[in-house]
């Protein structure tokens, strides 16, 4: 019993998140029915319920229902208010899949299976591109994951003919997986007009998108896809969609806004030292990293000073504006959890705030030029 008491609070949330991710990856029942990580998480929740005189979930299925109905603040475990703030769920009640909040907790877990999410693949791609001295290949790969999260089998094959992507063809094939029946209704899959990821059909007429950034707006279908014709339809794995496609859309949107101001941001410079390098007419350089994270505490803990090459005058971490609206106190919680080595070296901005800062800097430069 004493050994089990360790799994409370944050360790237990990580255990639960990893369990829900593992469940979402199952394609058929196993023997035993549930992986050890899932059964272990269930056992710990039952233990805490008994200790706190709360009726425990009667099965793993009921545990999943808890996760789709109860925000973390209502779970029978000890978790600080800033970590369990708001009404975020671990399982999406409509699609039954892990939420982004869940994926962020799982990624922060000291579990090799959880840490593998997108990291191994991206490190492999970086290594190949560095060895080939081809930053163009890395940039093309990042844009592919951002702009084309869904491909037909024919489109996937044709990528092998792209000169910039040729050396990464094996990595590309492992980035995409055949879609499951969960994305098909009436023999068709539908791509989201906002992000190009596949929509999840709900009932007979509705669709929802699994990316947080799209859940706040009306869903529009970009195109219908036949999952059988031409070899089928492929989609980026869920972790890549969450941690590469989602933030990447914010990165490229910010790139477009800065270009509209007359600036020329360099994307993912020096093999992804950071996301955007912005050089202003007066010689100042901003280094910008873009994250689209639901939990500001977990984001703060994982934030390190930006790499120094290319050199810069300001290191900026940018989060989409909607995150500050969704979660009161986002900035304050982020700062509370920021490591000491990052405090004062990384400033947090919303994307809107950053564009305003850039406009103000350019106006000051213009006024000084007129006064000269």
Give the end-to-end Cα distance, rounded to a whole number of Å: 76 Å
Percentage of residues in helical conformation: 40-55%
SSE arrangement, N to C: HHHHHHHEHHEEEEEHEEHEHEEHEHHEH
Largest sheet: 5 strands, mixed
Q: Choose one word for the global shape.
A: globular
Computed CA radius of gyration, to the nearest angstrom: 22 Å
How many individual β-strands?
Answer: 13
Strand order of the largest sheet: 9-10-11-12-13
Account of the 3D structure:
The chain is an alpha+beta fold. It is globular. The protein contains 16 helices and 13 strands. It starts with 8 loop residues before the first helix and ends with a helix. It folds into three domains: 3-114, no CATH class; 119-236, no CATH class; 261-371. A hairpin with a 5-residue loop joins strand 10 (276-279) and strand 11 (285-290). Residues 1-6 and 111-115 have low confidence and may be disordered.
Describe the SSE topology:
Layout: H1 9-25, H2 36-51, H3 60-69, H4 100-107, H5 112-115, H6 119-131, H7 135-147, E1 150-152, H8 153-158, H9 169-175, E2 176-178, E3 184-185, E4 188-192, E5 200-202, E6 206-208, H10 212-215, E7 221-225, E8 233-236, H11 238-260, E9 266-267, H12 269-272, E10 276-279, E11 285-290, H13 296-302, E12 314-319, H14 321-326, H15 330-336, E13 347-350, H16 351-371
Helix pairs in contact: 1-2, 1-4, 6-7, 7-11, 13-15
